[in-house]
Every structure is written in structure tokens, then in C-alpha cells.
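User: Show me a protein chain along with its predicted structure.
Assistant: Here is one chain, sequence first, then C-alpha cells.
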Amino acid sequence: MPIDYTKARRTIARRDSVLGDLMRRHGACGLVDSQHTDPFQALVHAIVSQQLSTKAAATIASRVDGLLGGLPTPARVAAVSDVQLRTVGLSGQKVGYLRDLCRRLEDGSLRLDTLDDMTDEGVIAALTSVKGIGRWTAEMFLMFRLHRPDVFPVGDLGIVKAIKVAYGLRALPTPTRMLRLGEAWRPYRSVACWYLWASLDNVQTRK
């Protein structure tokens, strides 16, 4: 079911004045505008984005898409060499991750067409079976491909920094403190996270 962004914003603002201020400052939630329609491309871009700045991730993702004919597919990945993938900016480690993803799709140990029917934790378990895909990457997939409304990536450094700044904390918050704070945002924690990213002008990192 699509997220009702008007209801989400109203609910969050009523419970958390800090997030209410951020929402007024940044306007309509842009989460839907950043979402992928193709699940394989979403995973490829998530792998590309690991440990990179916004600008670098966007540049390399665009080069990878270009190399793979505009839209990555497992067959198109198989048709190019590791050297070609390295040439457009992927590290050797990320090339390995991409190859493992394709192998698992080919042998059926991972089926992207079944993820929609899984719980959030089920999707995370399925995706993290792939070499190089950790919880953060799986959470980005949940938010930006499966449109899940209540994902809270407490390991995302941008979210950690945004909470510290927005709430005037002296130190970076622990995951426990973040989860406690985020209880007020349920069942729309994905929406709250978008505004936290926006507060750092870093939303494009999550595409």
C-alpha cells in the first residue's frame, strides 16, 4: 500500500516538534521521487553507493548504467569484464559483490520477485546472504525500492549526524537512543529519515 505522506507528516509533526520544524522547512517529502522501479538496478546502485560521497556515488552509478546499456541487468553484467567495471569506477571488491549478486540470481538462491511478499526482516535476511550486502544496503532497498514506510537505518552516519544536530545533542546518539527517539515516528520512520537526510542536504545519497 502506498505511503500516505500527508498523514505521515501530520502524525510525525503532532508527536515530535523537532521533526515538525524540519518538515515545514523542507516541504513535501521527496522520498517517492528518489525511488527505483527496477529491483536489480536498486541493488546495483546500493552497492555502488557504499562508502562514497553523494557526488561520487551519483557519478559512478551513471557510468555503470551507461556501460550496461542504460539499465543494469544480470545478463548485461555478465557480458562485461571485471576490467570494464573497474574502468567506470567500481572497486575490485564491489565488482566481486556484483558478481555474487548475479550468481545468486542465476542459481535461484535469491529471487527478487518474492521480496515484496516478505516482512522487512525477511527481506534483510534474504539480501544479506549476498556477499557485500549488509543491513544498511538492505534497508536502503526496503525504503527506495519496496517503499516500506517504517524503516529506521540506525547505522546510517547521515541519520546519526542529523539527529545530533537537530536535537542539539552533545555527542552522537547511540543506536539505543535513536530507536527510543524514533518510537514517536512509527509507523512512518522512513519518512522521518528522509527529512533528517534533507536537513543535511544529503538526500541524493540515498538514491
